[in-house]
Amino acid sequence: MQAENFCADIFIQGGKGPYTYTILSNNLSETLSLTPSVMPTNNRVSITGAFQISGLQSLNVRVMDSENNSAVKSLNVNVVSPILIQNFTVLPAATINTRCEPVYLSANGGCGQYTFSLINNQNNSIDLNANILSITPTEIVDLDIPVRAIDSCGYFVEKHFMLSVRKPLTVTTKRLHDGIVGKNYELALSVEGGNGTYHWSIYDGVNPSGIELFSQSGIYKGIPEKPIYGTIVFSVSDSDGRVTYKDFFLQIVYPMTFQTESLPVFEKEEYYEVKILATGGIPPYTYKIAGSLDNGLNFDNDKGLLAGVVTTSGDEHKIMIMAEDNCYPTHNLSIKQYTICTAEGLTIISPQILPDICENMQGTQPLFTFSSVGGIWPLTWSIISGKLPQSIVLEKNSGELFNFPQRHGTYNFTIQVQDALLNSHTRECVWHISKKLEIQTLSAPKAPKNSWYSMILSANGGKQPYQWSIINGYLPKGLSLDSVTGVISGIPVGDKRRWNEPPFIIEVRDSNSSQQVAEKEFYIEITDQLYIYTCDLPQLKTDIPCTIIYKNWIFPRCDTRCPLLSFFGS
Questions:
Q1: pTM (predicted TM-score)
Q2: 3-class SS of residue 274
Q3: Nearest CA to 183 among 153, 152, 144, 227?
């Protein structure tokens, strides 16, 4: 601490000039001096210098006139230490349009009882009330904030505080890439705003085995080992301690292949129809064909349907069919060669892939009727390999399937038709029995007002992809429903939604030819920012010990995680 310069005047009377002044025997003599030391015409002298020690100090001053008369007096000086504003010069980094933590100014030295003020402040985002410095920066800039502290004696000191204002920390990656089991996966997560270096981590959700997140670079890469369909939450922090979170939908699927192994035999002048089916990848699929077709055949690229009336017989030629899926960001391709054969005589013309139906679907009409052309009546139908779904009965004279399937699954079997002359024809068939379509999501979590909100509706059964819609009611203002992914997201705005306001009804439709529809009533309550995100507790069985631990969740605009909620019982 550097001592401040001291200056005080001493006055005398009497005697005869000129006068000579001297500071006698004290430990301050080296730092104090008299100016001037000889004054012939007046009776005033100044003591100048610097005190090195605070507290009550004394010094003896002697004056001698021209006739050697002298006088000595002891003077007391109360020395205070310089005023010092104790706060660090560099304030914690700030985020634009976000209120900083208040800075409580403090000082020491001087005479105490300090008053703080801003010096020439023209910035409305900076306010100083008593000793509390409040700042809500409105632009990205490095601020220089001069502050003055004045004590009760009028001594003052000034200090310049430095504040670095940065953009909010925001994850700019819009969507995760879809992945394929056994194939390289790599995505560079991106972020903007904040300051310094970033540190990435997986905050919540299930990370696919085989994929790793590199914390320093934000590279998410590896070779996925198993399929996955769900949500993963990433967090990223910067050098100043800012943290932000973003949840993504992630799906890892099996590689795309063709489910249709071969084409059945064509019969001349008869209608023919077969659907080329792909599996794996991400539906919907589109198809393309390379090679010549009989003039009576056509190929539907959207449906993968090969249909028409064959006008020639005895021919055999090759065609190439390419299937393309809807994987993001790069579609997957699969190519397969098929042989088209034409023949005359008894032929089954029913498609290889029977229309999907739902388990336990009841009715008096046949579920499906096999068809054939040629041959001599009567015809006899039979299953010669594989099996039909449980409880399904094949009527041997008409080729009709009756009853209702009791279990879902994919059933492979070979159907045979035989005419009166014992000529026969067979066809391998696939029949998918789907589960009843149901919405699995139990309820919607509460939505924090003016903060980002996202939830995923989930369904089970039927045939994917699903189509989501709201058939009655409406979402809170600021939220929207993605009809493809079933994600409800957005920033709720306006007044809080009360508990007694009407709910809304969500409908989901599957892609079965006999389309299934399910609906469920939901309600989203708009609340204050702090809430427990867990929607429902699972069902428990009596007399069976259980342990339930709910993971902590980050609250919007809150850097404090809620405590773990756990209980034990039986």
A1: 0.51
A2: strand
A3: 227
Residue type, 436: K
Show the tokens assigned to 141.
């800039």
Cα 175 from Cα 478, distance rounded (Å):
20
Distances from the Cα of 453 to the Cα of 10, 31, 554, angstroms:
77, 70, 12
Residue 180 has pLDDT above 90, yes or no: yes
Q: Give the N- to C-terminal CA distance of the chain in Å, as an integer.
A: 69
Map 374-401 to HEC letters.
Answer: CCCCCCEEEEEEECCCCCCEEECCCCEE
Cβ–Cβ under 8 Å, residues 465 and 486? no
> 84-166: which CATH number, 1.10.1200.10, 3.30.70.141, 2.20.70.10, 2.60.40.10?
2.60.40.10
- Half-sphere CA count of 284, side-chain side, radius 13 A: 12
Residue 488's identity, in one-letter code, is: I
The DSSP letter of residue 189 is -
CATH fold group of domain 5-79? Immunoglobulin-like (2.60.40)
Q: Where are the beta strands (DSSP E) in 403-478?
A: 409-418, 424-434, 438-439, 447-448, 453-456, 459-460, 467-472
Q: Which CATH architecture has domain 255-344?
A: Sandwich (2.60)
Q: Which band of pLDDT confidence, cut at 50, 70 and 90, is reported for residue 184?
A: very high
The string of pLDDT tens digits covering residues 352-395 is 888 888 887 766 788 899 988 778 899 999 999 999 998 899 99
Q: Is residue 295 within 8 Å of 311, Cβ to Cβ?
A: yes
Closest CA to 336 of 272, 293, 277: 277
Residues 85, 91, 97: CA angle, nearest 5 degrees: 130
Per 3-state DSSP, what percentage of the chain is helix, strand, and coil (rounded to 5)? 0, 50, 50
How many residues does this entry show for the chain?
570
d(CA 76, CA 60): 9
Domain spans, the chain: 5-79, 84-166, 170-253, 255-344
pLDDT value for 236: 95
